[in-house]
Amino acid sequence: MDDLLHGIYHSHRLLLVLAALAYFAFWSRTHFWMPRYAHVMAGLSLLLGLGVLLLTPPDAPVNREPLGWVKKGAMLAVFPAMVYFFFIFYGGQRAAYQRLHGEDPVACPNCGSPRQAETVCRGCGRS
């Protein structure tokens, strides 16, 4: 039973990695387009990182090192990077791009469920 659970766990991890690669490939195909609200969230997280740096005490080890400014810059950049990474990883960029540039769903004349134009309806199976 333990081997089965480990197998399911590893297959789930593999699916997550493949999905992430697909989303990042889609991001590069759209020429790194992002919706404005993602940039606003990243800007707010940048302010959060700045607040963390301002709350750092003066006697902290990062303030005493000769290359502390590099670590401070990385600490500042990690928050917007996390916003962009998780926004792309969980498919938010793809959904926003398809909503903005894709076709609007049309109601099926037979059953009324939403479907893309010129496709077969998933609700009733008619075209």
Any chance you could write out the topology, listing elements then pairs?
Blueprint: H1 2-29, H2 36-54, H3 61-64, H4 68-89, H5 92-101, E1 106-107, E2 114-115
Antiparallel strand pairs: 1-2
Helix pairs in contact: 2-4
Tell me the count of domains.
Answer: 1
Judged by helices, strands and strand pairing, the structural class is: mainly alpha
The total beta strand count reads: 2
| Arrangement of strands in the largest sheet | 1-2
Helical percentage = 55-70%
Strand content: under 5%
Shape, per Cα inertia axes: elongated
The main sheet comes to:
2 strands, antiparallel
Low-pLDDT runs: none
Distance between the termini: 46 Å
Mean pLDDT: 84
Number of helices: 5
Secondary-structure element string: HHHHHEE
Please give the radius of gyration in angstroms.
22 Å
Description:
It is a single chain. The chain is mainly α. It has one domain (2-115). It is 65% helix and 3% strand. The chain is built from five helices and two strands. A two-stranded antiparallel ribbon has the order 1-2. A hairpin with a 6-residue loop joins strand 1 (106-107) and strand 2.
List its salient traits:
elongated, mainly alpha, single chain, two-stranded antiparallel ribbon, 127 residues, 5 helices
A few lines on this structure:
The protein has 127 residues and is mainly alpha-helical. It has helices at 2-29, 36-54, 61-64, 68-89, 92-101; strands at 106-107, 114-115.
